[in-house]
Amino acid sequence: MALLVLGRLELFALSGPRVVVVPQLQIALRSEPQFSEREKKSLKKTPFLPTNKIFIWSMRDERIRLAWVILCIGLGTGVAANFSACDSRREVWVYSSLSPEILEELVDPLQAAVPDADVRWYQSSSEGLATRLNSELQLGKMRADLVMLGDPSWFLEKKKEGLFQPVESDALRAIPEADRDRDQQFVTVKRTLAVIAYADSAHPTELPETWKDLIQPKFMAKLSLSIPFDSALSWFLFAQLSQAYGWEYVAELKKLRAVVEGSQNSVLGRIRSGERPLGVVPLEAIFRPTGKGIPIRWVQPKDGLVSVPTLMAVLKDAPHPEQAKKIMDWFISAQAQTLLATHGALPVLPKVAPPIGVRLELSSEKAVVQPIPMGPELPRLRDRTRAKFSEVFLH
């Protein structure tokens, strides 16, 4: 094993070996520590770490322990001070469905706001995160301190199972009651808005002004949507539109040969290729830089907002709950909410402005398309919506 050039001093406790990250050293220490088969398997299962910045050794190997002691003595109090300082930081895992582009901008300001936490991220889609979390729960090996994903029905189901712990803070109380759990076990950190997108290069002569316009004959074979079985935003869309216009609306979409399959990226791909020049996608996907060279424009339908909340919760058995609560507070701060809004998300802090071009007044009580309340009926509504969609559109 080798001691390489490393970033900062941290100690990761693993089963079997330990992993130490050491600062500002250019010393090569080599040996052949002996690992048992169990330890080798443990190493293979180790979560992502900067592998070019680690030194792994077996505590049973007297030669390595002795070399490490000699090294620390030789380096003097500087290393000891660094070790003590870094040891006060807590490794906090956040499982998040935020896009990598958003996370990249959030990492530094979050770390500055919560200096006693060494924040680690596991990023995936909301559906992918829910699957992983369910698997970890079944195995009894939950690693996350916080979870943040855009599937409110999952949070309601897991709340019943006692997965979360309540959080009391002034920051949480500043969020409208409709956007936080009444028992303070989770909070909305943003809302993802559905819009009708089109490629600027297509130069469409006519664009829909409302959701209802999409079932006009002139939009025959022009529309694409993501499948509601894999996307919370998609099933929210079909639930809201069917409540407003009946399931006859979905039947008309089928007659007009709308394509409903794949993810939001599939929809964007069909827009760019011209296969289906119109598509329903999250506004955040349009704000996201792609490097494709084909600008995507968007229309916000006038008959109501369709949006899905992204929620955050601290797990009941979080290894570091105090740091996790500080991270949650930061996500609903003005700084974080403003950052999210610049990426096309709807902020939940009332004093933060929405993304440029978004008209929040379209969510008034007079709108035809009304939001779905966050209540205990939500998981059943999800299942009914998916079943009915399958019956009406797929058969």
Describe the protein in words.
With 395 residues, the chain is an alpha/beta fold. The protein folds into three domains: 10-87, no CATH class; 90-189 and 310-363, D-Maltodextrin-Binding Protein, domain 2 (3-Layer(aba) Sandwich), CATH 3.40.190.10; 192-306 and 384-393, D-Maltodextrin-Binding Protein, domain 2. The chain has 14 helices and twelve strands. The protein has helices at residues 37-44, 62-75, 77-87, 100-113, 126-139, 152-160, 170-173, 232-245, 247-255, 264-273, 283-287, 321-331, 334-342, 378-393, and strands at 10-13, 18-21, 55-57, 90-96, 117-123, 146-149, 187-199, 223-225, 259-260, 278-282, 296-299, 307-314. The strands form two sheets. Strands 4, 5, 6, 7, 8, 9, 10, 11 and 12 form a nine-stranded mixed sheet that branches. It has a three-stranded antiparallel sheet with strand order 1-2-3. Helix 4 (100-113) links the parallel strand 4 (90-96) and strand 5 (117-123). Helix 8 packs across helix 9, helix 8 (232-245) crosses helix 14 and helix 9 (247-255) packs parallel to helix 14 (378-393). Residues 1-36, 38-61 and 75-87 have low confidence and may be disordered.
